[in-house]
């Protein structure tokens, strides 16, 4: 795996956060978390980008982009109408965030 520039990586994380915040019309008070996670599941890329955000109602939303964070494009962010579908039901957990 080629060496990553921490500046390039951090810039990509901030870009994905900004796109997510804009796409879902999140306020500054809403938390957005972007992380790159490793996967060993068959058919999954070795690194993928997990995005979680919490709204003011303390509802957690989550989606995954099957690319390294540096490769994520604005078009990879789900459409705004999917916001409610991305909400995790109470009691549901995931290992990435």
- Helical coverage, percent range: 10-25%
| Structural shape | globular
Low-pLDDT ranges: none
- How far apart are the termini? 24 Å
SSE order, as H and E? HEEE
- Total of domains: 1
Number of helices: 1
Using DSSP, what is the number of strands? 3
* Largest pleated sheet: 3 strands, antiparallel
Strand content: 15-25%
CATH topology category name: Double Stranded RNA Binding Domain
Strand order of the largest sheet: 1-2-3
Architecture (CATH level 2) name:
2-Layer Sandwich
Topology at a glance:
Layout (H helix, E strand, L loop, with lengths): L5 H18 L7 E8 L8 E8 L5 E6 L32
Antiparallel strand pairs: 1-2, 2-3
Summarize the entry for a quick read.
This protein has 97 residues and is of the alpha+beta class. It has one helix at 6-23; strands at residues 31-38, 47-54, 60-65.
